Amino acid sequence: MRWLRSGLFAIVILLVTMPSAVASSQWCDVDPILVIATPSGSLVPVYVTTAGDGVEHLATVTAAQLSYVASPTADGSKTLVTVTVFVSNDLFDSPFATKSTVSSGPMATGTIYASASGTSGQTLKMTFVLDQP
Predict the structure, then answer these.
(1) CB hemisphere CA count around 44 (13 angstroms)
(2) Domain boundaries defined on the chain
């Protein structure tokens, strides 16, 4: 009888402490600064937080290609900016989900200018207006 109780106790402890599988995702993200030169010559730093769904994609997300085009608004008082981000496919799981945010502070803090989401292998395009001419 003691063996039976000990065995049942061991099984209960095993079941309570056994790790369980949970479906979840972890995003890996990078946050380079991009300095935008406005048509009037002002330099405006912004952060481009870009993420990929899965930590195994960190190297690919880090190598994302960033570019921008800045032009004056119709009345010339502000700057229209389009930022593009390209995250290529990789060997792990392609395509994978991507997202990007342009903001005034690191890690998508401060003023959020624009956001986009998509998948690797496609260009994310974000358009916004800066108050500087």
Answers:
(1) 26
(2) 28-130
pTM: 0.80
| Among candidate residues 116, 110, 130, 125, the one with its CA nearest the CA of residue 51 | 116
Give yes or no for a contact between 11 and 5, defined as CB atoms under 8 angstroms apart.
Answer: no
Distance CA(54)–CA(69), nearest Å, equals 30
Length of the chain, in residues:
133
The token duo for 121 is 């292998």
- What tens digit of pLDDT does each residue of 50-76 get? 999 999 999 999 999 999 999 999 999
CB 82 within 8 A of CB 126: yes
